[in-house]
């Protein structure tokens, strides 16, 4: 027996036919699997327009709320044809002068889309720069390379989660550490690694992924800066390590010569930037190392690194808001105050933009109050 083909229109026709035969709307809708509201809509359309109403209607919107009027679109195309070298910005300025107050002037992006739709502009090819990975060290000898990772997490019978921290030797595949931790916090990982270093010594390198707490911001081994209590002196953080200053300096303790800008100075592609610190950065951090030598003497950073400016906003925390309240917040944090650094940041942002764009030198390095 061949399959019987049916369509939506045929089903609607059968539905209407049964209603015309006198069957009740509820019974027919229940058999066809539709609501009575849909059934009445189909039947009303049939009575108004006949069989034509049983076909699928267009789902295209009746009107587009933000559609550009055809007259404006034609005027944009005409202006572009008259001035082939004009772009969307100049065409919009001309429309503002001619039609300001009469209609809503389209945005520059809308005008560019109209020009692109009519083939009056061509997009510039964008070069795609693909990242080239750095080859990983092979780690051929034991204790040369360790691999550390958290092997997921799982829920225990008491409802708490277990986070197993594992460390293996890359060459021998020997499991050096498998510690069950209650979280991926850095303090518990530090304790596990310190115990492992005591038992197994120090490897040449440790390989990990980019997750917490290995390479994430404000986490173990990767913090450019950490709050008080998270990265104290002597903890595994790079914050107090040499180099500290932007220009090249020699460390009298190790004899190393380095600087924050050493790499870009070698390639002659250093950007212009501001280094802005508040009172908090001096109170519980190490911001003074940015502009002093190893003996505590002030350095003329502006003369040694002409593309750097150091500014200090006195008596503020790490970050403040306009509705700051003078109350004690967290442990190891000074009392909050009503000083707001927004206006100073805004002024320095404008100065940095003028320096980069127009070559107007910013104010000299100094300390200011918010």
Please, could you describe this protein's structure?
- This protein is an alpha/beta fold.
- The chain has four domains: 8-54; 70-117, Orthogonal Bundle (Arc Repressor Mutant, subunit A), CATH 1.10.10; 145-207; 249-369, no CATH class.
- The protein has helices at residues 8-20, 25-32, 36-49, 70-82, 88-99, 108-117, 186-200, 262-267, 279-283, 301-304, 342-358, and strands at 145-150, 154-155, 161-169, 175-181, 205-207, 249-250, 257-258, 273-278, 308-314, 366-369.
- The strands form three sheets. Strands 1, 2, 3, 4 and 5 form a five-stranded mixed beta sheet that branches.
- Strand 2 (154-155) and strand 3 form a beta hairpin.
- Helix 5 packs across helix 6 (108-117).
- The longest helix has 17 residues, at 342-358.
- It is flat, with a radius of gyration of 35 Å.
Secondary structure tally: strands? 10
Estimated radius of gyration: 35 Å
Give the proportion of residues in helices.
25-40%
Approximate shape:
flat
Residue-averaged pLDDT: 79
End-to-end separation in angstroms reads 88 Å
| Low-pLDDT regions | 217-238
Helix/strand order: HHHHHHEEEEHEEEHEHHEHE
Oligomer: single chain
* % residues in beta strands: 5-15%
């Amino acid at each position: 027996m061949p399959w019987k083909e049916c369509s939506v229109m045929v089903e609607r026709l059968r539905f209407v036919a049964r209603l015309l035969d006198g069957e009740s709307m509820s019974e027919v809708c229940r058999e066809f699997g539709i609501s009575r509201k849909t059934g009445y809509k189909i039947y009303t359309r049939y009575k108004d327009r006949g069989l034509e109403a049983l076909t699928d209607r267009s789902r295209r919107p009746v009107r587009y709320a933000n559609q550009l009027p055809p007259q404006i679109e034609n005027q944009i195309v005409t202006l572009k044809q008259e001035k082939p070298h004009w772009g969307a910005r100049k065409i919009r300025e001309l429309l503002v002068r001619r039609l300001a107050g009469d209609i809503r002037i389209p945005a520059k992006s809308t005008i560019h889309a109209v020009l692109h739709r009519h083939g009056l502009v061509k997009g510039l090819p964008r070069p795609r720069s693909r990242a080239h990975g750095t080859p990983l060290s092979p780690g051929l000898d034991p204790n040369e390379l360790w691999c550390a990772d958290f092997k997921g997490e799982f829920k225990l019978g008491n409802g708490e989660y277990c986070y197993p921290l594992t460390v293996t030797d890359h060459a021998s595949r020997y499991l050096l550490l498998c510690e069950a931790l209650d979280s991926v916090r850095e303090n518990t990982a530090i304790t596990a690694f310190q115990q492992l270093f005591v038992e197994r010594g120090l490897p040449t390198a440790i390989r990990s992924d980019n997750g917490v707490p290995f390479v994430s911001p404000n986490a173990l081994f990767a913090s450019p800066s950490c709050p008080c209590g998270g990265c104290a002196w002597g903890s595994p953080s790079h914050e107090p390590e040499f180099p500290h200053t932007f220009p090249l300096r020699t460390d009298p303790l190790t004899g190393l010569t380095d600087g924050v800008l050493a790499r870009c100075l070698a390639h002659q592609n250093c950007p212009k930037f501001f280094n802005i610190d508040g009172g908090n950065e001096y109170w519980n951090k190490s911001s003074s190392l940015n502009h002093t030598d190893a003996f505590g003497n002030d350095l003329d950073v502006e003369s040694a690194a002409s593309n750097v400016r150091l500014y200090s906003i006195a008596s503020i925390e790490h970050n403040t808001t306009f509705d700051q309240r003078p109350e004690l917040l967290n442990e190891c944090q000074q009392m909050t105050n009503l000083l707001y650094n927004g206006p100073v940041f805004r002024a320095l942002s404008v100065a940095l933009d003028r320096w980069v764009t127009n070559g107007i030198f910013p104010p000299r390095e100094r300390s200011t109050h918010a």
